[in-house]
Specification:
It is a single chain. The chain has two domains: 2-113 and 292-324, Quinone Oxidoreductase, Chain A, domain 1 (Alpha-Beta Complex); 127-266, Rossmann fold (3-Layer(aba) Sandwich), CATH 3.40.50.720. It contains ten helices and 16 strands. With 325 residues, the chain is of the alpha/beta class.
């Protein structure tokens, strides 16, 4: 038996709680693992609070992320005793996830824990931080350099935003953080933000083409915020879109794209190829300030995860939640 945060739905009645489950019920997989740490991402919050139809199969063990140790493996790349990181691949949606003591996984989904990172630090980063790194890599691939001008990060006190601010600042970029939490200015400046702006300046409907300011943008918010960020991006600039906290709509025009030649790049972390994942995690181990990462962390137990998911969806969480399994 093992403990897990299970989501159930019977006759349209939803429940979420930590239960003891039989290991025999685990799905087939070629790598069996013990989970040491997991985390709560925005998608986990949606699933655990039933705010969005994330879960496609019932009952479901929540948790898209996990890090721990391999117990047994028939996959050629994995041996018992090795430490792994898992992000995405439909866990917590269509296949039992990692807010659990045990999991059955596919070896091709897993990334080896980089030297210099603990499993706790890996889950402090989680999909949120891994997504932030994918955004930074996309901006770099587009040719962005630290001297090119201000880089806007929206949703800056969230998981993606916090790590994006810290990463970009560590790499020498001038970061402007947008947040609705006015009392978090000192936190964002500690992470490396050169200045902080009120998200209200971006979240309302705006003109399709506005005064040029940003050389690049990392957007975790979507909707009007993303539209305004594009409208304010400088000629030839680039916007990496990875979230939908404000909404899934994109009320914009083609004007920034055809009159200023900006690029909008979609960032997917769930199905990203293994080589790209490995590159991102190696960069995170190298480029992210571990002391700043520690300042983002709230650590909880598995039994506290449901309550923390509620707080996350209510906008009451700063930084990253690490779940000690």
């Amino acid at each position: 038996m093992f403990k897990a945060l299970q989501l159930s739905k019977q006759d349209d009645v939803f429940s979420a709680g930590v239960l003891a489950l039989d290991e025999a019920a685990l799905p087939p997989g070629d790598v069996q693992v013990r989970v040491e740490y997991s985390t709560l991402n925005y998608k986990d919050g949606l699933a655990i609070t039933q705010k969005s139809p994330v879960v496609r199969s019932w009952p479901m063990v929540a948790g898209i992320d996990g890090a721990g140790v391999v117990l047994s493996s028939t996959h050629p790349d994995w041996q018992a005793g090795e430490r792994f990181i898992h992000n995405g691949w439909g866990l917590g949606e269509t296949r039992w996830g990692l807010l659990a003591e045990r999991a059955s996984l596919q070896g091709q989904w897993l990334v080896k824990l980089p030297a210099g990172l603990s499993t706790r630090q890996a889950m402090a980063i989680g999909t949120a931080g891994y997504t932030a790194m994918l955004c930074v890599m996309a901006l770099e691939d587009h040719g962005l350099k630290p001297g090119d001008g201000e880089v806007l990060v929206t949703g800056a006190t969230g998981g993606v935003g916090s790590i994006a601010v810290a990463l970009l600042a560590a790499l020498g970029y001038t970061v402007v953080a947008a947040t609705g939490k006015g009392d978090q200015q000192a936190y964002l400046q500690h992470l490396g933000a050169a200045s902080v702006i009120d998200r209200a300046s971006l979240s309302a409907p705006g003109k399709p083409l506005q005064k040029e300011r940003w050389s690049a943008v990392v957007d975790a918010v979507g909707s009007h915020t993303l539209a305004n960020a594009c409208a304010q991006t400088r000629y030839g600039g680039v916007v990496a879109a990875c979230g939908l906290a404000q909404g899934v709509d994109f009320p914009a025009t083609v004007m920034p794209f055809i009159l200023r030649g900006i690029s909008l790049i979609g960032i997917d972390s769930v199905m990203a190829p293994l080589a790209r994942r490995q590159q991102a995690w190696q960069r995170l181990a190298r480029d992210l300030d571990h002391a700043k990462l520690e300042s983002m962390i709230t650590e909880i137990s598995l039994d506290q995860a449901v309550d923390q998911a509620q707080a996350l969806m209510a906008g009451q969480v700063r930084g990253r939640i690490v779940v000690k399994i």
